[in-house]
Amino acid sequence: MIPIPETPKKEEKKSPPVISPTVEVGPMPRVVDGSGKPLPKPIEAPLPDRAVVGTWESESGALLVRKRGETKWTQAEAAEKKISSTDTYLALPGVNAEVLTKTGVKISLEGNLPELVPVNFLETRVLFHIPAPDYDADITLQAGRIVLKLDKGKKTARIVLRVRDEAWVITLNEEKSELVVDLTYRWSTDPKIDFDEAPRTLVYLGVLEGSASLRSGFKEFAALKPGDKLKWDSTGAAIQFAPLRDEDDPLGFLDRWLAKPPVLSKEADTVLKTILKDLKQQMGPLDITFSAPMKNEKEVLTRRRWAPLFLQAIDEMAYVVEGLQSERAEVRAYACLACKHWAEQGLGRETLLANHLMKELSLDKAEAFRAVRLLRPVNLKQINPAEVDRIFALLRDPNLAVREMARFSLANADPIGFRESGYESGAPKERYEMQALRWYQSWQRRFK
């Protein structure tokens, strides 16, 4: 007899539980740390919207802007002096400008010159964002120095400060609170590092007056007082109190921020005022305003040598490369400094600079990349002796710009030999070859 399978019973559908309207549903559990305190909210990505977030003021009347989606720098709107989110603003070398946000936060952008503060920055660039409801300001510092303080009558403020992929919350705790931030870049001294490494970024923060606090993730530095100094290094070190002996920063708190900077000479001060006056009256492109004096042999030398610093600040590197071939040694030296400062600020800039050298100087690819490499810091005692010989050989290169870049590299690595040799890259061939030999022999005598 064949068994007949039983028909499976249908499962009864259960109705969902009914919540009485009189029953209150409690809040979600809070995320807390070990002390029982709620963890701080994560900082969200900046809002992409464009809006006016403040106004700007400058005694010099100079502030540049690069609007979202554009590549060229222009002068910021001078009538209503509005600051818009998603735009990047730039204080030129030696020029200061102050932004006042709608929420009462003052943000000073401070430019620098080699004759002023001995810190590795020139221009200052800041990108502004619309602050979230919990904050009074939201900015990305891209280069240089800013000073944060409060407008009269405002007692406290919370500011989001972004640097590369980092985002910190800074709180100014008192009406008189004042905090300064320096952002600089530098290349690695490791000769094995390939081209276009991500630049090493160093940030130093110091409280100048009042009190402040800083939060980085779940870590908080509370009640920071005048003289406290923090450091962040993009090579992996978390933000921390800066050590007393810091190989990356030989300047102490006083020398970096509080010491009165050297006053520009009367001639230099006049030159800077003339540049800013020309900017106010500027009719054509900014690059012409800065490059024309560099090429003018009758122009004051200070203005000619500063020109490459201003040109690199607005990314006009073709003109800077022209400066490497100037008949004046001072202009060539500042053009080298401008190339180094510009190229070490971002991934891919070394290749872009090499492309300019190929186009403007008719160098082949190998020659151009070798020349750009000369801008990196080098320790002659640590690299291969054959590489040392190659660098010294470039002091006799047929191309003036390459000779100048080799001089720049070796003068920083061996200043004693530079002084002893009296080397001049722009001298007649017989003389610069003799000077190059004298420098090489001096090096061999002292280190071999």
Question: Which labels suit this protein?
Answer:
globular; 448 residues; 2 domains; Jelly Rolls; alpha+beta; single chain
Task: Please provide a written account of the structure.
The structure is a single chain. The protein has 448 residues and is an alpha+beta fold. It has 2 domains: 52-258, Jelly Rolls (Sandwich); 266-447, no CATH class. The chain contains 12 helices and 17 strands. It has helices at residues 253-258, 266-280, 286-295, 301-313, 317-323, 329-343, 349-361, 365-373, 385-393, 400-413, 415-421, 429-447, and strands at residues 52-57, 64-66, 74-75, 82-84, 88-91, 96-101, 105-110, 124-129, 137-150, 157-163, 166-172, 178-186, 200-209, 212-216, 219-224, 229-233, 240-241. It has a 17-stranded mixed β-sheet that branches. Helix 11 crosses helix 12. The mean pLDDT is 89.
